[in-house]
Amino acid sequence: MPGPIESSRPVPAHGIGGRMVALTRRAALFAAPALASCGAGPRSGVSGGIPAGEMAVPRLNALSAHGTLPGEPDAALRWTAIPAGATQLRIVVHLHGFSAPNEPLRLVQGRLPGSGLVLPAFPPTIAILPRGRPLPGRPGAFDWPALATPGGLQAVVEEALAGFGPRLPAPTQLVLTAHSGGGSGLARILETSLRGVLRVDEAHLFDALYGDHGPVLRWARARAADARPGVPPPALAVIARPGTATEAPSRRLAAGLGQAGLGAPRFRVLLTSAPHNDIPRLFGPALLADAAAALPATSLA
């Protein structure tokens, strides 16, 4: 069970700005095991590319199972500049953590700046922060059922990207990240991916592994075996805090990875004493720039 909650208080934003606008829907498809073609930009640049920006998406049909929260959008997007003629596109999906029972979620003002979604200039990247479903009888707790069903994550991504238009390059890499209580949703998506529905290339868990490590380990083994030309190499980074509820499951995962012959720098379980709510912000940007990057103030589990 997630321990510390994720604060929704705003933290200093990094990098990308832009106005908040709505998206229109456009059909697009995913193909197993790789991601298939989606549609390019809310605003075209003078040279035909898409400038970096952010937007809130008030409603996504694909997230209807999550209900609504007054004053909150269904998702927030952030993206890098996407040059005209780009041939690569990375999709990053981040699952937020829980909040205090009487604290608003603040998806755009609080969760997005604190998500660690600070995107390097290359490869061109679109990050999606979907809102979880409030759990009845558990104020401040969320889950992500719409993303864990077969085809669910693909539908959310396709609808979120719909407003970028028909020139968007085909997605070539999918990265999942999660903080705190979002880890259970990430694990369920990884389980779904093992059925051949989609290919997840990287997973980053920020103090987010509280329960069964099995889904993450099974995904790591299967994804490591999918080494072929044109497929991005996989990576896994799991960060936990010693003496908390994430330490034991994370150490069990580390042992399982070792038994499978999967180790650093591409497959890592790390320990840090950094504050729970700071972990995505401290380590997310470095991992998005390089999944094998050295992370200060951490040690291998």
Automatic annotation (TrEMBL):
This is Alpha/beta hydrolase family protein. It comes from Falsiroseomonas stagni DSM 19981.
